[in-house]
TrEMBL record:
<dbReference type="InterPro" id="IPR009057">
    <property type="entry name" value="Homeodomain-like_sf"/>
</dbReference>
<keyword id="KW-0805">Transcription regulation</keyword>
<dbReference type="GO" id="GO:0000976">
    <property type="term" value="F:transcription cis-regulatory region binding"/>
</dbReference>
<feature type="domain" description="HTH tetR-type">
    <location>
        <begin position="16"/>
        <end position="76"/>
    </location>
</feature>
<dbReference type="InterPro" id="IPR036271">
    <property type="entry name" value="Tet_transcr_reg_TetR-rel_C_sf"/>
</dbReference>
<dbReference type="Pfam" id="PF16859">
    <property type="entry name" value="TetR_C_11"/>
</dbReference>
<dbReference type="InterPro" id="IPR011075">
    <property type="entry name" value="TetR_C"/>
</dbReference>
<dbReference type="Pfam" id="PF00440">
    <property type="entry name" value="TetR_N"/>
</dbReference>
<dbReference type="GO" id="GO:0003700">
    <property type="term" value="F:DNA-binding transcription factor activity"/>
</dbReference>
<dbReference type="InterPro" id="IPR023772">
    <property type="entry name" value="DNA-bd_HTH_TetR-type_CS"/>
</dbReference>
<dbReference type="InterPro" id="IPR001647">
    <property type="entry name" value="HTH_TetR"/>
</dbReference>
<keyword id="KW-0804">Transcription</keyword>
<feature type="DNA-binding region" description="H-T-H motif">
    <location>
        <begin position="39"/>
        <end position="58"/>
    </location>
</feature>
<dbReference type="InterPro" id="IPR050109">
    <property type="entry name" value="HTH-type_TetR-like_transc_reg"/>
</dbReference>
<protein>
    <submittedName>
        <fullName>TetR/AcrR family transcriptional regulator</fullName>
    </submittedName>
</protein>
<keyword id="KW-0238">DNA-binding</keyword>
Amino acid sequence: MTSPTEAPSARPRVEGDREREILEATLDVLADVGYDRLTMDAVASAAKASKATLYRRWSSKQALVVDAVCSQKASGALPDTGSLREDLFTLHCELGGFRDARTLSVLAAVVTAMARDAEFAETYRRDFIGPKIAAARAIFDRAKARGEIAEGVDVELLAPALPGIVLHRVFLLGEEATPDLIAQVIDQIILPATGCPHLPTASS
């Protein structure tokens, strides 16, 4: 039996399936009301949890939202097919998820939050965008080592071009991020920009 002078035992952490349920609830609320109107109370209600449970794991709304968004990151090893085209296609076909209404709403909410909350933007860029840029850069670096990218090509400029173009067409032009669209961007824009015209494309 614990004596009055002994420190109380630490409260259990939120983890495993319960953590995933709360993160999913956070994404649902974020998609429904946006970042500004999202509250810890609203997430707690959606997750059927107490607000104290949330604060036991996340110190702020910002921390919770960043964790929720980052929980959507693809897992597993980077594709390494021996071909720049196939590596890019495999890596970015996950962008097909942007056909999902909730995913689009979450991303729109995140973009709004980044414009209004500098600290959130910094954390999101570091924890979510940073790893994605690093993954794309690794694929381009391997391709350059194989001779698929000409000397003098700015890999840092080229690496984020594919998701940037696809997202432009999704958000501004209202298109879907289909595998065909991703393949067209790779074949007609990315591969020609490598400066190595000998690379085969779908059109050739």
